[in-house]
Amino acid sequence: MAPVSADQPRPVPWDGHGLPPQAQLRMERAARSKVAGSLLSAPEAAALAAVGFSPVGEVMGCIVQHAGWAGYGCGYAYGWNASRTVSSGSATSWAGLTPYVKAVYEGWHTALRRLVQEATALGADGVVGIRLSETHLGGSNREFLALGTAVRTDAATATRPFTTDLSGSDVSKLLHAGWVPTGIAIGIAAGVRHDDYGVRNQTSTWGNTQVDGYTDLVNTVRHDARDQFERRAREHGGETVMVSSMKLRVWENEPSDNHRDHYAEALFIGTTATSFHRGAVAPTRSLSILPLDRTRETAS
Amino acid sequence: MTIADAAIPRDAINRLNSMREGEHRGLFTSDLSVNEFLLVREAGFRPLGLVLGSSVYHVGLQLGRWSKNQELTTLSEAMYHARELAMTRMEAEADALGADGIVGVRLEIEFKEFGESIAEFIAVGTAVKADAEHPLAPTGHSWRNNLGQPFTSDLSGQDFWTLLQAGYAPLGLTMGTCVYHIAHQRFWQALGNMGANVEIPQFTEALYDARELAMGRMQAEAERLDADGIVGVQLRSLPHGWGGHTTEFFAIGTAIRALREDHTIAKPTLVLPLSD
Fold first, then answer.
1. Hey, how many other C-beta atoms are within 10 angstroms of the C-beta on A214?
2. b/e for B80-91, b at 16 or more Cβ within 10 A?
3. What pLDDT score was predicted for residue A237?
């Protein structure tokens, strides 16, 4: 079978707005078709069917983003532990890796936006089980990819599809307990700190000591990322955010002789949810079972 | 320990204060799974926020005598002190949120590729607060432990629920560590063992010594909390790249106490699962 049927028009070159033509064609065809694809496992599909969700198709969003220029400055100051961490959240718009963080966030945001565009084209109410991944393509180019399954309810339709990286079974459990996922929140921050005299001294001793400079760097960057994360989660109007991924990367850079800086980048990803009932107890109570076999406990 | 002593960045304090109840009734974060989140709610606790503490630590240098069984106290102290720093910062965050406790605590160590013997010690968990009229609330004292700190526990949301159902409450994460250098065999000794199936008493003794020290220290922490016992104890051997003969023996568990003298443990019901 030919990949594209003969009666379909040839895709025109993409102007960079909306969905790429090939994706647009696939969505139009999928919306007409009675066959709905999904990335769900059988238990997930069954769990979603139990709360009235049926899959309408698998959806994708991706972007290749160039994140080259990082900004300048390393927070250098003369003296013992006098340097400070310059973090993307606290710095001016050019310093402390702010341009880099903006580019990376733009990457994730655009991938998710395109995924939602595909879901909207299919008339979906939500996208579940979203997997977010990034691939380094060499140079400073990175691909950001979001893949998920668009679902529709039998009941009232939402104005804008929700997104979640929780599995179908988890979404079903949440709905049973009176919570509904509202969206994916992402928080990114990066920071740089000059290795000052204090850091050099604390890392070259024979004794035990906390390295204050590095501790300051990782703490500041992580707090900054959590700050961004919560701000974005609030925009979704959620009451709770369930963090699914929490990463921190530290690396060093030596721009010139006797000048060394350390960089840190933190990433938080999670799903916001809001409760649709008021009251202390969930509308449906689950049956709690205490399994007595140790094997399952040790496996998890 | 207040926030100011724990060296938490200024921005973080502002953020935590804005999450405090009353001033902003809104969003809370947690790294609980969906199952854990729902069970913690069902246990009558509300997650307040993700709490985290971190310390980047330079672990000192100490070498064991080649043929001597000995604890490397400098390294033991480093591994304990750095974890303690991370935990204290996490607890200070929970305290700022007005939490009763922290569940699902994870302690992680990551040796960094830059710099010799530099590691980041991280403590992460979810701060929780009991509902105002909690049916299991301990009479006469709060959910916090006898040091006035929020309780900490490395138990999952599932275990937390089960523990409360059985009438126990967590008090604190207790740990003990011992970095031990196990002696090399002397030449004649090794020659004597060759081709024979025998116990090597000095190795056995070394492993005993190290584990007993770690577990004893954990026990002492639990006694300080006035605990009834410690559950979920794990005894780990962590090599950390100090060579084959130097290993960290690390004991960690959650100290608990009974909520009431007359608590009863529900009899389990038999369930035949249909999955294999």
1. 28
2. bbbbebbbbbbb
3. 77
Query: Could you tell me if residue B208 is inside a domain?
Result: yes
Q: Give CA–CA dist A234/A201, Å, rounded.
A: 42
The residues in B 2-41 lying below 8 A from A, measured between CB atoms, are: 7-9, 11-12, 15, 19, 26-35, 37-39, 41
Q: In the sheet that B229-238 helps form, which strands lie side by side, from edge to edge? A: B70-71, B168-181, B246-258, B229-238
Give backbone dihedrals phi and psi of A272, rounded to 5 degrees, phi first: -90, 150
When pLDDT is averaged across residues A139-149 and rounded to a whole number, the result is 91
Which CATH number is correct for A35-295, 1.20.1260.10, 3.30.110.70, 3.90.470.20, 3.40.50.300? 3.30.110.70
Do A230 and B27 count as a contact with CB atoms less than 8 A apart?
yes
Residues A188, A104: contact at Cβ < 8 Å? yes
Phi, psi (deg, nearest 5) at residue A95: -95, 165
In a domain, B274, yes or no: no
**Domain span holding position B176:** 3-258
Q: Is residue B21 part of a domain?
A: yes
What number is the average pLDDT over the span A64-88?
Answer: 67
Quick check: ipTM above 0.85?
no
Domains: count for chain B: 1
Closest chain B residue to the Cα of A176, Cα to Cα: B38
CATH number at residue B195: 3.30.110.70
CB contact under 8 A, B58 and A173: no
Q: Is there a contact between B74 and A207 if contact means CB atoms under 8 Å apart?
A: yes
- Residue B268 in any domain: the answer is no
DSSP string, A128-179: EEEEEEEEE-STTEEEEEEEEEEEEESSPPPSS-EE--S-HHHHHHHHHTTE
Taking the CA atoms of chain A, what radius of gyration do you get in angstroms?
Answer: 23
Facing residue for A203 by CB, picked from B42, B78, B118:
B118
Lowest mean pLDDT among A243-247, B105-109, B153-157, B269-273: B269-273
Contact B58 A229 (CB under 8 A): no
What residues does each domain of chain A span? 35-295
d(CA B90, CA A286): 32
Is residue A262's pLDDT more than 90? no
